[in-house]
Amino acid sequence: MYCNQCEQTFRNSACVNSPGTCGKDADVQSLQETLLYGLKGMAAYAHHARRLGHHDETVSAFIEEALFVTMTNVNFDPEALLDYCLRCGEMNLRVMELLDAAHVETFGAPAPSRVREGTAAGPGILVTGHDLLDLWELLCQVEGTAIRVYTHGEMLPAHMYPKLRDHPNLAGHYGGAWQDQKREFAAFPGPVLATTNCVLIPPEQYRDRLYTIRATGVPNARRLPDGDYSALITAALTCPPCPEAPAGESTIGFHRQVLLDQAPTLVEAVRSGAISHFFVIGGCDGAEKGRNYFTDYARATPPDSFILTLGCGKYRIRDHDYGEHLGLPRLLDMGQCNDAYGAIAVAAALAEACDCGINDLPLTLVVSWFEQKAVAVLLSLLHLGVRGITLGPNPPAFITPGVFAILQQRYDLRLTGQDPAGDLARALAAA
């Protein structure tokens, strides 16, 4: 345990033994931190939704109450704190619903789309992060110029929305997940705009070309306090142009509504045995070792199954040809990490149509976690009572063995192992 939130800590530094001076033990500290990280992740989604005109006062009130619960000497009850964590999951589900509605209302109904990857000859701007409104405002300001705008990382799903996809200056996608940005941004000749988290402190090679917006900021980059992109546009026109360097195409855009429109066909295929299983493989990616587990797991899935993916975890599995099944790509890219709401909505609809619970579906969730938004999504899944989630590649350091044991007992929460093919075989055998 490490707790330094009050003056009475051990030697006025921090309580590192359990229980601490106030009587709080390590499991209570763990649950408070889980709640805090879940709130942070939920706040990121809520911020995006609010910028698009969607918010819920119930969510705001819960954030205030939940922050109060984590204060010094206010709650030492593990069961009460676990309940708050699950309520955080409930509120996060609502926030993801708001953001989903905001995206559709603002940018149009998503549809499957072929996206050009690489660069075309001419001046370019690369946009990374998550905020689709920032991307739209930039596109509006470069309209009429020769500047081509490219998405990076979790901005890839922008191409499934018609208002964004059809803009003449949106040229395609460049690069992969956030942890590759130092190499990819150094190779991109134009300026780079970072709209949200998952931006790294830039090395010298491109720090004079890195721009951030509003809350996002790193040392030595150029921070834009508002939506005026004139400095960024000037940089794009003065930097060396992008080369003609195509890197193929990819298919994205299997938003929840696209799949819900296919629900009757999918349900009948499940009932007839034509679909053996659904796998949700995605989440928040990271750079540490062990994440090849998700790559190996996806490639071992049977040819009569479907893989739903979302978040930057998709970059671990998207460079493989999984083929098609029933006229659809086996790998169905649903969007950003917040589009976990869509995966949940599809699972709920299939369960209702099959007259069963989500846990009775031939469905396995294999989720990579990296930071606070992934914590919020996990809490949403636990709030819904989803069992048997495989999480990895490493357990969260703020989850104590005692708290993890509770989650294992109540939700059959599992960690990734050393044998992805074996884990997949066991999942299929248990279905």
From TrEMBL:
**To which protein family does this belong?**
Belongs to the HCP family.
Q: Which HAMAP family match?
A: Hydroxylam_reduct
The record's keywords, sorted A to Z, are:
2Fe-2S, Cytoplasm, Iron, Iron-sulfur, Metal-binding, Oxidoreductase
User: What's its top-level EC category?
Assistant: oxidoreductase
What is the reaction catalyzed?
A: A + NH4(+) + H2O = hydroxylamine + AH2 + H(+)
**GO molecular-function terms, A-Z:** 2 iron, 2 sulfur cluster binding; hydroxylamine reductase activity; metal ion binding; peroxidase activity
Chain sites annotated for binding [2Fe-2S] cluster: C3, C6, C15, C22
Record bears the keyword Transmembrane helix: no
Protein name as annotated? Hydroxylamine reductase
Xref: PANTHER family:
HYDROXYLAMINE REDUCTASE (PTHR30109)
Q: What does this protein's record comment on cofactor binding?
A: Binds 1 [2Fe-2S] cluster.
Detail which positions bind hybrid [4Fe-2O-2S] cluster: H130, E154, C198, C284, C312, C337, E371, K373
The question of whether Transport is a record keyword is answered with: no
Q: What is its EC number?
A: 1.7.99.1
Q: Which organism is it from?
A: Marichromatium gracile (Chromatium gracile)
Function in brief: Catalyzes the reduction of hydroxylamine to form NH(3) and H(2)O.
List cellular component terms (GO): cytoplasm
Instruction: Name a biological process GO annotation.
Output: response to hydrogen peroxide
Q: Which domain of life is it from?
A: Bacteria
